[in-house]
Design brief:
It contains 4 helices and 5 strands, in the order H-E-H-H-E-E-E-E-H. By secondary structure, it is an alpha+beta fold.
């Protein structure tokens, strides 16, 4: 599946009425293109529901990331994928799609920096 296919699907989803606008960064789109078709479908499904279900997701699937930016969240998609999103008023921006192991490594790096500084 190429970027054009999922981009076309995404445009169809965007036409539905939303309470929030959904945007994708180039980084997130690039990583999405590298996923298997099954993983890509899971991410698109989860992100497509995000503007309508933000307040209902709670802390089980959507967690605020600690740090300097308090508007950055991690959306759990399956066991290994996390979608990093930023919410600013009525705009949700998909920042990146990462494997959980990558995110865990970033957390450890931040903890080391904090302990050293």
């Amino acid at each position: 599946m190429t970027q054009t296919h999922w981009s076309g699907w995404f445009r169809l989803v965007q036409r539905e009425e939303r309470t929030m606008k959904l945007e994708w960064t180039f980084t997130a789109e690039s990583y999405l293109d590298q996923l298997s078709p099954e993983e890509r479908a899971k991410v698109l499904h989860a992100v497509g529901r995000l503007p309508m279900a933000w307040d209902r997701l709670g802390e089980t699937r959507l967690q605020r990331l600690e740090g300097d930016q308090n508007d950055l969240y991690s959306l759990r998609v399956g066991a290994d994928l996390r979608v990093l999103v930023r919410r600013q008023e009525d705009v949700v921006t998909v920042i990146d799609v990462v494997r959980y192991s990558q995110l865990d490594g970033l957390r450890r790096l931040a903890a080391v920096k904090q302990a050293a500084g």
